[in-house]
Design a protein that fits this description.
Arc Repressor Mutant, subunit A, 2 domains, 8 helices, alpha/beta
């Protein structure tokens, strides 16, 4: 998952970014509201982690501007403001969840998984296309009764495909979900990861649509087209 982290506290921002990267997320980090708006409007993100006490334009203003502009990017507020009225205002302005600082990284990651499930129309914690089952907690995939452990980037790629089974993701879309800013995109990384996953599981678990991208086919054989 590609995440936009908006946090002006350098120590907390660095710690949060590392926790997210350790959990296989691609993370871009900005320090103020204006940069957050620019990044959200110009980037392909699946989630924003938004602090409220930002320099210049505060987090609630950023949230309001995005929602009024029709941007439906899922937003999880991270803030030290624990008053009920702040939580209610943030949720009423369009936030998807609210986490009060200080927080444990395990809870943050669990809330991120919950937001991702809701966005993908998944009620259960395990992602599945009817053939594969991917557990975001253990980062294991189950196929034909066998369980396989995945590397961080194998997991990130398969997670992106299984969030919307049958949807085609291009090379750039997959790279966006694997790498963050300032992370070098390795040559043929997507092909290498897909080859590795096919070798661990089976060639048919990931289908190539020539000239377009890749998908994890749904069990019913339906195809939902390109991801947004």
């Amino acid at each position: 998952m590609r995440i936009l982290l908006v946090e002006d506290d350098h120590m907390l921002g660095a710690a949060t970014r590392e926790a997210l990267r350790d959990a296989t997320h691609a993370v871009d980090w900005v320090l103020d509201g204006a940069s957050a708006l620019a990044a959200a409007q110009g980037g392909e993100y699946e989630l924003m982690l938004l602090d409220l006490g930002l320099p210049g334009r505060d987090g609630l203003s950023v949230l309001q501007a995005l929602r009024q502009g029709g941007n439906n990017l899922p937003i999880l507020i991270l803030t030290a403001r624990d008053a009920l009225e702040d939580r209610v205002r943030g949720l009423d302005l369009g936030a998807d969840d609210y986490l009060v600082k200080p927080f444990e990284s395990a809870e943050l990651l669990a809330r991120i998984r919950a937001v991702a499930r809701r966005q993908g129309g998944q009620a259960q914690p395990v992602l599945s296309n009817g053939v594969l089952e991917l557990d975001p907690v253990t980062r294991e995939v189950r196929f034909q009764g066998q369980t396989q452990r995945l590397t961080a980037r194998e997991y990130a790629l398969l997670h992106a495909l299984l969030l919307r089974p049958g949807a085609i993701l291009s090379r750039s879309e997959l790279e966006d979900r694997i790498y963050g800013w300032n992370e070098e995109v390795e040559s043929n990384a997507v092909e290498f990861l897909i080859h590795s996953l096919r070798k661990k599981l089976a060639p048919e678990v990931i289908k190539n649509v020539r000239g377009v991208g890749w998908l994890a086919p749904r069990a019913d054989g339906a195809q939902s087209g390109s991801a947004p």
